[in-house]
UniProtKB/TrEMBL annotation:
<keyword id="KW-0812">Transmembrane</keyword>
<keyword id="KW-1133">Transmembrane helix</keyword>
<feature type="transmembrane region" description="Helical">
    <location>
        <begin position="129"/>
        <end position="155"/>
    </location>
</feature>
<feature type="transmembrane region" description="Helical">
    <location>
        <begin position="89"/>
        <end position="109"/>
    </location>
</feature>
<feature type="transmembrane region" description="Helical">
    <location>
        <begin position="50"/>
        <end position="77"/>
    </location>
</feature>
<dbReference type="InterPro" id="IPR021737">
    <property type="entry name" value="Phage_phiKZ_Orf197"/>
</dbReference>
<protein>
    <submittedName>
        <fullName>DUF3307 domain-containing protein</fullName>
    </submittedName>
</protein>
<feature type="transmembrane region" description="Helical">
    <location>
        <begin position="176"/>
        <end position="200"/>
    </location>
</feature>
<keyword id="KW-0472">Membrane</keyword>
<feature type="transmembrane region" description="Helical">
    <location>
        <begin position="220"/>
        <end position="244"/>
    </location>
</feature>
<dbReference type="Pfam" id="PF11750">
    <property type="entry name" value="DUF3307"/>
</dbReference>
Length: 261
C-alpha cells in the first residue's frame, strides 16, 4: 500500500504545482513580502487541498494527519522559497526536493493511508487499479511538464546564446513533445526508438554553417536536447519502478514487470 499512497500523493502535488498553477500565480506567491504573497499562497493551498480531497479521500485520523502535514509543509516551503539563494535551477530543485521529502516520509510513515480512503471502502475493482493510473499520470506530468521547468532553469544562464528566430515558444513545444514521446517509448518497451528521435531532431535542427555565433547556437541546442532527453529517460524509468509495485492495468504493451502482492 506504500506505493499506492505514494502515487496518489505525488499526483496531487504534481498537478497542483505544474498543471493547475498559472505562471501569474507562481510569480505572485514568490515575489514581495509575505503579507502581499498570502492571497496567492492561500489560493495555491486551496488547489492542493481540493486535489488531496479528490485523489486521497481518507476521512480518518491518518487521512487528517496526511492532509494537514501536506498543506502545512507546502505552505511553509513556498513561503520560505524566496529566501533561497543560488541559480534558478538550484532554487527550483531545492524547493521540489523539500516537497518530495515530505511526501515520501508520509507514504512511509502511513503505509495504510490508501487502504483507508473512500475509494477502497467502495470495494470496487476501480479502487485496486486507480493507484496505477495515478502513477502513470504522475509520471507523464513529471516527465513532460515538470521537465520543462527543469530544462528552462538549466538553460537560463545560457539564454543570451539562444538561437534567434523561429516560432514563438517553438523550442518549448518541441521539448514537451520529445519528452512525451520518450515517455511513451520507454513505457511501451521500445527504448530503441529514442535513437531515431535523436537522429530526426539532429537532421531537422542543424544546418551546415560555420562561425562562432552558429557554433554557440548549436551548443545551446545540443545542451538543451541532451538535458531534455536525459530527464525524460530518467523519469520514465522511475515511473516504471513505481508501477512495478502496483497492480498492472492490463495493457500488454506496457513494459512493466508483473506485480507481486
Amino acid at each position: 500500500m506504500i506505493a499506492a499512497s505514494l502515487a496518489a500523493l505525488l499526483l496531487a502535488h504534481l498537478l497542483g504545482d505544474f498543471v493547475f498553477q498559472s505562471t501569474k500565480m507562481a510569480e505572485k506567491k514568490a515575489s514581495g513580502p509575505l503579507a502581499r504573497r498570502l492571497p496567492a499562497l492561500a489560493r495555491h493551498m486551496g488547489v492542493h487541498a481540493l486535489l488531496l480531497a479528490l485523489l486521497l479521500p481518507a476521512p480518518d485520523a491518518q487521512g487528517a494527519l496526511a492532509f494537514v502535514a501536506i498543506l502545512a509543509s507546502h505552505f511553509l516551503i513556498d513561503a520560505l522559497k524566496p529566501r533561497l539563494r543560488g541559480t534558478a535551477l538550484r532554487v527550483f530543485l531545492a524547493d521540489q526536493a523539500a516537497h518530495w521529502l515530505v511526501i515520501c516520509a508520509l507514504a512511509l510513515t502511513l503505509p495504510d493511508l490508501w487502504a483507508h480512503t473512500l475509494w477502497m471502502k467502495t470495494q470496487s475493482g476501480l479502487a485496486t487499479y486507480l493507484p496505477t493510473v495515478f502513477a502513470l499520470v504522475a509520471g507523464a506530468v513529471l516527465t513532460v511538464r515538470m521537465g520543462g521547468f527543469v530544462i528552462g532553469a538549466l538553460m537560463q544562464p545560457l539564454a543570451e546564446r539562444a538561437p534567434q528566430g523561429g516560432l514563438p515558444k517553438g523550442g518549448q513545444l518541441i521539448g514537451l513533445l520529445e519528452r512525451a514521446l520518450i515517455f511513451v517509448l520507454i513505457l511501451t518497451g521500445q527504448p530503441q526508438g529514442i535513437g531515431f528521435l535523436i537522429a530526426a531532431k539532429s537532421i531537422l535542427r542543424f544546418e551546415a554553417k560555420g562561425g562562432p555565433d552558429h557554433n554557440a547556437a548549436n551548443e545551446y541546442v545540443i545542451i538543451g536536447t541532451l538535458a531534455s532527453f536525459g530527464w525524460a529517460i530518467a523519469c520514465a524509468y522511475l515511473t516504471l519502478g513505481l508501477l512495478a509495485h502496483l497492480p498492472p492495468i492490463g495493457i500488454p504493451a506496457l513494459g512493466i514487470p508483473q506485480h507481486s502482492p
